[in-house]
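Step 1: inspect the first sequence and its tokens.
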Amino acid sequence: MIYRGASFTCTFLSLTTAGAANTVTVPTVQVIKDLAAAAAATNAPTHVAGGVWRITLTAAEMTADVTTIVHSGSGLVGGSLAISTEADYTAARAGYLDKLNVAGTLAHTGIAAQFMATGFAVPGDAMSLTVTERNTLAGVIDSRLLDAGDATDLIASIVARIGNTNLDQAALVAAIKAALFDVGSIANKLAVDGTGRVTAANMVVAPDNNSITAIKLKTDNLPATPAAVGSAMTLEAGERTTLANLVNTTLTTAHGAGSWQSGSGGSGGGASLSEATVAALEGSIQILLVSPYVPGAAPVLILPEPSPEPSLCTVFGDLQTPAGELAAGVELVFTLLRPETGAKGARLISGKEVTTTTDASGRFTVQLERNDLLQPLNKTKWKVECASLWNRAREITLTTPTFNIGDLIS
């Protein structure tokens, strides 16, 4: 059982790309919590033996349902290890269970308090009720006392206090009920105006008329049927005429006075639109753009600028891990392949090497030669290696000013 939120030491096997056990190169380890973005591990791995490495993950790195470690390195075969954690059983609870014997009773009664749930009442504690709970309890007790037959004794006590031995108990109950429900008696004692209502003079709070008036001033200007978002706007006749005159003034200022109709303009004619043009404007829906349109969506792919040097190619790419996460901090090695001297070009040997690393967004850009002294333009071959993402090297021939590495792995 692996505890969630507790440090944990795990092991993994690291091999070189040649298939041998890696006992020297310290792998780079990244931590992925619940398929979130990868982050560098807090602790570095150490070699145990025979290519087996171990790493201690911190409590913070283990605070997840599934913690995944990804190990990689130059010249190494990358790999990953997923660790599922358990939160329902903690180390503290396991210690408590150790204090129980097989029969399920406390083996150490002297520390029984350790098994008490915190935040709850235990036998012997004083219980404090809320106001609502006390009122509810009092009402229930009163109801139970009356239901137990004390109602008769209570009314008899009232009759005795009045001192009228001839007063019928049933008649007294009826009189009390009538007084309670008679608007003209008890209720009138609460009302100033005699209507039986509870007025502002005793219990009712007057409304905040000032705030209501302020809100009314703002809502009075709202139309009865406001336009929905995206609705076409229809201008009134006066607004259309004003807009037409504004267009005429703008054209006249830019091109001189003219009759701006049927594509003609410039000189001649009056300094206003023709009647036909004004009529056409007034009969159509007018849309006025008050600011330039700017697309809101982000570009799917950003193409870098080619190198001004014609013998160079701009190689770029946006890399992702097999889990679909951004491949940040991933190393790529480009090796120039040259034809062996004296051969007909049938065999290639390794030459110059260029290494680059992806940024936080998984993107990289590097300038590579399109030709050299031994190979003509557009015939240069490069070997591409990425131990973290690929299990074998790839070869590319640079024939364009730019090359997207995504074309290689798509």
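Step 2: inspect the second sequence and its tokens, then contrast the two.
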Amino acid sequence: DVYKRQILGLLIVLIFSCSKDGNTDAVLGNDDEINQLEETVLDETVVLNNLKIEGATKKTGAPSSTGGIFFELENTSNSAFLKRGFTIDIKESSDEFVGVYLQVKSIDGNVADGYWDISNISSKISQVKKKNQQIAKQSLSSKIKLTGGSLTVNFLDAIKPGKFCYVLCVYNASGEISQPIEVCVTVENWGGSSELTGAWEILSEEYIEDGISDGVINVGEDDCENDYFYCTSTQAQITYEYCYKLKSSEFIFNNNGTYYLKIDEFISDIDYEASQLNCVAVGVYHDEYYISEGKWAFNEEENILTLIEFSYNEDGETGIEPDGYVLLNGTALIDNDILIIKDKENDGGYSYEYIIKFSKK
């Protein structure tokens, strides 16, 4: 259906990343040197003082658990990224809470003096929708008495690649404080795989829902499906064909950890207002492009590729993501000079998988 087509189109945007210009600090050195920096033991006080958390207040001392309230984390990641930081997801099965306490400790066990009180955390459902190469980033939020939620912890520039841990508690309106959960993370360095550096171009894409594939779509091929609308004046059902074609793509990883994206496509759709007025499908045909620039990081232990977007240009409309936006966090493997990227997710009991293949230019 059209929704699947939108997801397919979005995935292309997420994955065609290449880089021409640096965005922040350049990363130099070979893979071993880059990855070795990630073994640095980060100072707990430096990390604590250089977190950027919306709606949070830094306090002295340390919270003391009382019990009487329970929570769990889900989708726990052991990776964080320069500037972007990391995301904490609290399961919906947790007890009701009104805020979160966050402490920082080194991997050697030293706890920083002080903690962050995050008292206005929202229950957020992040959605990324795409139609005709347009990306809309939306969040639905509700305040107070949460049984689950999500919060993003960004980094200031003083936090460098390395390792640290954070300790999390939740509290409720009665003042009860949960037992803590500790998570240790690695702040990934930009870059990290010389095999990925260079220019790539797409070969094919595939979308799989609950184990059922929509089929492999090759670059340059029309991907069409029938859709319909109801004419309001006659209630007649009007069928039309929606088509999408990826014309060309540019995909370059720079060895300094930057990427640059350029993608061109062709869309065949309808003018909805004109079609309603005439009770007949009125076709529209147009070319579109999308440019994205940011940073990439590769987790060599789990073969995870992450793309963080910092700026974009969508058909002449430009935008900036000052704290970075996660475009992709999936596995990346190279087999016989073919780059295979897979992104999997589960949502509402459904499983989705996206597979994109590239060849090196």
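Step 3: confirm your contrast with the notes below.
Confidence is low (pLDDT under 50) at residues 1-28, 123-146. The CA atoms of residues 129 and 135 lie 6 Å apart.
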